[in-house]
Amino acid sequence: MRTIKSLILLTGLALVSCGDSGTSGVEKTADFKIDYEKFTLDNGLEVILHEDHSDPIVAVATLMHVGSNREKPGKTGFAHFFEHMSFNDSENVPVGANRKMIPEWGGSRNGGTSNDYTVYYEVVPKDAFEKIMWIDSDRFGYMINTVTEAALEREKQVVKNEKRQRVDNAAYGYTDEIIRKNLYPQGHPYNWTVIGALPDLQAATVADVKEFYKQYYGAKNASLVIAGDIDIAETKKLVAQWFGEIPSGPDVEEQNIAPVVLENTKSLYFEDNFAKLPEVRMVYPTVKNYDADSYALDILGELLSGSKKSPLYNVLVEEQKLAPRVGTYQNSSELAGEFVFRVRANAGTDLDQVKAAIDAGLTKFEINGVNTDDLKRIKAELETGLYQGVSTVLNKAFQLVQDNEFNGDPSFITERAKLTNAVTAADVMRVYNKYIKGQNYVMTSVVPKGQLDLAIADSKEATVWIEEVKKDVANEEVSQGEEAVYEKTPSKHDRSEPGFGKLPVFKSPTIWKGDLDNGMALYGIENNEVPLVQFDITIPGGQLLDPKGKEGVASLFSDLMMQGTKSKTAADLEEAIGLLGASINMYSANEDFHITGSCLTKNLDETIKLVKEIILEPRWDAKEFTRLKQALETGLKGSEANPNAIASNVFNQLIYGDSHRFGINGSGTLKSTAAITMDDLKAYYKNLSPKAATFHIAGAINKAQTISALSPLKAWQGDAVTLPKMDVKDNGTGGTLYFVDVPDAKQSVVYIGKLALSGTDKNANNLDFANEILGGGSSGKLFQTLRIGKGYTYGAYSSIASRQAVSPFAIRSSVRANATLKSLEIIKDMVTNYKDDFTDTEVELTKNKILKGNTRAYESLGAQLSILREISKYNKADNFLDNDQDELINMTLAGYKAIIDQYLNESEMVYLIVGDKATQFEEVKQLGKPVVQLDIYGNKI
Predict the structure, then answer these.
(1) How far is Cα 419 from Cα 869, in angstroms, rounded to an integer?
(2) Which end of the chain is more exposed for a tag (fewer CB within 10 A), N or C?
(3) Based on the domain organization, do 534 and 669 belong to the same domain?
(4) What is d(CA 120, CA 136) in angstroms, rounded to the nearest whole number?
(5) Confidence (pTM)
(6) What is the tens place of the pLDDT at every residue in 586-598?
(7) How far apart are CA 258 and CA 744, in angstroms?
(8) Do residues 529 and 457 share a domain?
(9) Sign of the CA dihedral with 624 first, then 630, 633, and 634 last
(10) Same domain for 243 and 270?
(11) pLDDT tens across 161-207, in order?
């Protein structure tokens, strides 16, 4: 469950706007659509069905037309809180089943709340489709009688932990609250954040929950989308059976809210306990969703800052070197919209300089106007985004359900493409002059504690409510409590759990292989669902080849390689990629270097020509090198404010030791990166050889077409590179608890683990299998106990990293500060007793979860690329997924116990806590382990 501003943020869809480059693809893009059938049940529920038989899976999305904009002052955060309550119990489904059973069926489920709606969604193997109809409809129409005081209090703690994790314990976490309070007048539905205020949440009652349900959870206030491997006629019958008796509910009046008008500009500052960098935001009131001007405002955001040729980037980043990047974007909701400027500046930068630079960039935009090529580039990128946004059944379900509920047209994607493609340069300048130039706005200066001199001059202090960490936790202890006593709602249908349908059989995709004359191997999967391809060139080395004492070279090198070629400046290269609607990126991982990309299939030939140019003709731009080093320093400094980043870095150092490359952040440290020179990057360039490289591709293209498109890369030559042997040994930290102080932290970040095994080890799969019950998602024991049972955390998981080197097993969570010791005690006992508690029941659950989960795990092109990378890196068989399934089926209880005994010995594990020393340091000593205090860099204090 999560709070979200829009469906786009939830799913990663690139469908806020979509269009074409204005050339040959216009007709195709304008005609793009998602086929569907829509009908309305007698109770008013609107249902949209979409058939997609490409994978044996089904996605279900239910959107309730109620978000935080229906709340009242004093009862904020209630829509999101109700979403959490909905996942607890219902009349005909066992207690806790909603969160636990769906993953055990091989599915995934979640929900999200925005200003305007609450959405619930699942993706399951086809055989569990009717089970989802049962569980989803019961949550929708039959949950309210099961609400108890105990469940209410437990879920309060979970939501409070979510707020602590995302807001209170995060740099710039309070900025949204400050902006909303000052942009929207008191009483306006957007005056408060989606997650709301903790005092409001704490005051919520069972009566409040029931009143909210009665008012907003009627069938006619919702849309239901089912997409995937379904039969339309049969699905109609199932929907009528399971959803048809849900009460219609009262009419929910439309909200007619006048547009926001600011009488004057408001400038506010806030000292942030976690921030290490100063940040300024400027927010202008604009237009709501589906307004004709929203499409031009989307493009305006891209034009102002979305490329190296954009005016704001040009002034702030290149000329004045005040920040590593700048962001501008339109954010439209149901009732209003905002245009946002956001700059997180370099350490120590005066935000008055940043504001002056923004003004200078806008002046430049006014003088130069809209560049035709930039407009063409943005539309080409949006065309590709159109297809990427509907490349999975769940993403299609999200798009259909949102457009139906808020615009009455599930297929509005077609119209959106046309409207965006029709935006002209004159439209962009018109909306700029109407909504931005000379208009009032809200501006925030968020600065590190004690650096008020960096805030915008004459700004006023912003006020927010900050929770006090209390040592006494008696009033926050919760439990499952008694089940509710009630009379079941009568039904003409049997609402007991249906059986499984026919078992869908996962089948490994067909893989083709080849090679180029230069020694590069080729691996591909043909998938013609959408006219897209994704590719990845994997070159062994990565962080392993960083020079000693200059860790971060590979990462910085990957950034510099994208900053132009001999014949193209960084801006020219970016534009050339954008005009194709493509993306090309480089990054360095622990053991590999990657060149990745995606594009429409029709543009692969031209995209590969650019890849060749990037690889063979680096620009070595000194100015860009200086800029990137400054940006890296800013980023590393900023990570010092992030408790999760601190925990990750220190944990790896404890596991591997600071003399091993994997004990140091792949981006390096402030010390190691300071010494890096251009010559270091040129030396690293020699490691880019095709001899041991592999080209992976998935998408709408076959082997012959791929080889033809790759012909330019035949010119790429090089010698094989010898990789250093990095021995991994016990660092002697097991059995000790390490503590890093983050003053006033509202949560403690917990990392617990030890070195386990290599991804090449014969037991690698078996350890993965053995971990599933402990920490594999929301049905795992960690999640079920720490979140569902105790309300100590928002989430708790465990996993094993996959590398050729020996890698760690790790448990991760962020727990309520004053429940740190109790959480550690629970985890310690759980791991200690895991082997003895593992029974034949867990064997069957593990088998079921993984086997059925595979039916949906490899749907996307990105997931199919990961299959190819597994095969090439670890020399696995083409059908290794089938072999892995056979290994799982043959795994015995004795085998599980042996694996747990060998790799999950609690006494050998490192314990790391990143939290508030003042309240928790003495507490954690009661765990009975030696305690050592470290600073945020992992040095002993």
Answers:
(1) 39
(2) C
(3) yes
(4) 9
(5) 0.88
(6) 999 999 999 999 9
(7) 41
(8) no
(9) negative
(10) no
(11) 888 888 988 899 999 999 999 999 999 999 999 999 989 988 999 99
